[in-house]
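It is worth pausing here to work through a concrete case rather than discussing structure prediction in the abstract. The textbook approach is simple: state the sequence, then state the predicted structure, then interpret. We follow exactly that order.
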Amino acid sequence: MKKYISFFLIALSFSLNTNANNLTISTPIYNDGNKTVTFNVSWDNSWKLSSGPSNWDGVWVFIKRQACSNTNIWATALVSTTSGDHTTSVASGTNLLSVDAVSDGMGVFLRRTFSGMGNIATHTITLKLNGSMTTSPSITPSSADNFRIFGMEMVYVPQGQFYLGDGRQSNSYNFSNGNNAGTPLLITAAIQAAGLGAATNYTSNPMYGCPNYLPASYPTGFNGFWCMKYEATSVSYVDFLNTLTYDQQAVRLSKWGTRYPNSVNTYFGNGGQKGSIYTSVAGTFNTIPATFTYNTSYMNYTPVIYLSWTDLTAYLDWAGLRPMNDFEFEKACRGPLNPIPNEYPWGNTLITQATGTGSNNGTFQERVGQSGEGLCFYSWNDQNWAPYRSGFAATAITTRSQAGATYYGIMEMGGNVSEQVVGGGSGYDYSNFTTANGDGALGADGNANTDGWPRGIGANQGNYCKGGDFNGYGGHPTIIQVSDRQFYGGNTYNNGQSNGTGGRGVRSFQ
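Step two, the predicted structure:
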């Protein structure tokens, strides 16, 4: 097998009140003697703040390795769990970055060492592989293996208390302090330590919550976690598909009934639309995977669409992340601030509808013709019929509200594409959901197999959509409001056959 080293170019991201970013990761170099992988990384508009949100952005980096023998599958190459085993340096200037290892070895976080804001110039990163050369799933490694580096820009959401619910009239569309109508619930360290218990502790009616007690192992949002700065992009989802086996690719197409990856122009979505991902090289049935690609004229900077819950969770399992729940969604949007009834993720009740085809489509400069507070794409009657580029509302001079950013600098938690979260009602017991992150390997059925993650699709299976989308589903724009839960029960909008569904993931400390 001919050895090659590939690279991954991340689409973009955002920092507080500034432009969308360019994150690039260079071609990796593997040193078999030292068991290290070295690459260059850079991105724009990074931050670490010592006041206000008191948080920082960073990059989650993980390695996929393909053995030149056996099945040639791509597996996650585990890295050292000791931060000091990894290094970062610059050719000139100040070394701005630290490398934070994680206890499961699934990857590392790159972040600013000291407080500051601005671009991260090219830094050289060297990651030490796990001493036993472990991969997930297990493969037999050799010095001739292929390597790929993947990365996602993330935002750290610090530990701390926050309010659940926004204080509106308590009903199925909102969390409340038990049966006290319109009273938000303050999530504290004590609540996280004890667990939330019965649904009547956080909703006005038990049918609106989990039928079983939520224990201390259930993440309430109090503890710190990393959140993807943007929804999963088309580029990153194509990279995911292109590291799967033929059978795993077939599972991702199965929601459409008769689509298989053994022909050219087999669409992951509804073919012919601006947002479609499709096969450019056919696979061989049950043997050789297909090569997927996307419309490079439009989709270099846009979130992926047509994601079902099982599509999203497979992607997150592969990446070593996990889904967020609806409590964490509210924390990531609101932060520690007092809630405002009917507020949007940017912290007020103002909203400006983005519409039209925009300008500079498919480029890093794609913009819309509107501006204003809470600029958001949520129109179902729009000729664009696909999301705008991630970060389209942000410029160098926009405020949080004008850019549509959350308290912590996370983008598009409202509009563009829907968020998919753990939670809901209708009697499904999701109390065994924990902070367990993905292990980089999918189950035998081609789906995520992490314990505690809901496996079915829809709110009556423990997952539902929040945040609204460009398709306008949900009585726009009320679903965009942070505390809105109108799809808590029975809805299967996230079955992957709507072009408005996307998603993102988080990662807990393990």
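Step three, interpretation. The longest helix spans residues 309-319. Residues 65 and 147 are 5 Å apart (CA to CA).
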